[in-house]
Each structure stands twice: as structure tokens, then as C-alpha cells.
Amino acid sequence: MRTFEVRPGHVPYLPGLTLPGAVVTRFLALVQVTGDADAAQRLMSGIVIFHDVTGFLPRTARRTPSDYAGTLRSQLDALGDSRLVVTELLCDGDHVFVRWRRHGRHRGPINGHPPTGLPLTEMGSTTFRVAEGRIVEVWLQDDRAGLAAQLERNRTVAQVAMEQLSPLTAA
């Protein structure tokens, strides 16, 4: 097991890491926690095949590094100052498996839920395929049901708090 917190711009040294593993750890530190489009261009192929295997109907999409970075920046904005923790990183040939948790605060809209400022934890795993030193394919699995439950709980907590404050602000 290789557990570590991903810090923006800090590529961790992990002894015995394969070349694909090194590409992915660079990607995590330079793109995944920052949304840096230039770093995405350097570490991803011109078109990356993304398999979203979480949903009821799994889907596959072709994405450019700049598309990916833009979507990622929106997600990072919604979670405020978040922390990404890798709880498992395994390499096998050209594939790299990463199990992760992202902790943040709900600072922007997510799936129609307005920001509450309350904590959120997103969990999942991603498998990357690396060819010629660049990420060419990604399989994403994340706990959408768990995130939806947290968003609903936070909405309820925020609503109750507002109702409790209403009589105080009316006086």
C-alpha cells in the first residue's frame, strides 16, 4: 500500500515506482489537485478515452486535456480547499490503479445543490493506462450515492440552521 496526501506541485518519491506510476503521481500532483491545463497537456495524450463505470449506464467519452482540466477546475472550486489522499497505488505494466479520498467543503454548486460550506468527502478509484509517457485511458469509479447522501444531509442541516436563525434576524 502506498498512502500519501497529494500536495499541489509536490510529486512524491515512491521507491520502486514504474514509469507509468511516475506519470500518474506527477499527474495527481500537477493536475488532479490544481486543474492545471498546461500540465494536463504535458501528461495526457491529445485525446484520452474516459470510461465512467459508476453510473447506472456506464459511458465512455473522448476528452482533450484542456476539457478535462476545465471540468476538474469546476469540481475543485465546488469543494474549496480540498485535500486528496491516495490510499492505494498499484502498478501493473502500463496500468496504474489509484484508490483515493477527497475531503473538502461545499463552496460551489454540485449537481444542483447550492453551497452550504459544510464538509464533503468524495471517495473512489481510478485506473489509468499510460503509453509513451502519457495517460491515454482512464476508468473512473466514484461513490456517487455517498456524495449524494452527503449533499442531501448538508442541505437539510443548512436549512435547519437557517430556520433557527430566522427568528433571531427578524427581531
Automatic annotation (TrEMBL):
Organism (species): Nocardioides antri
Upper lineage: Bacteria, Bacillati, Actinomycetota, Actinomycetes, Propionibacteriales
SUPFAM superfamilies, sorted: NTF2-like
Protein name per the record: Ester cyclase
UniProt GO BP: polyketide metabolic process
Pfam families: SnoaL
InterPro entries associated with the record: Cyclase_SnoaL-like (IPR009959), NTF2-like_dom_sf (IPR032710)
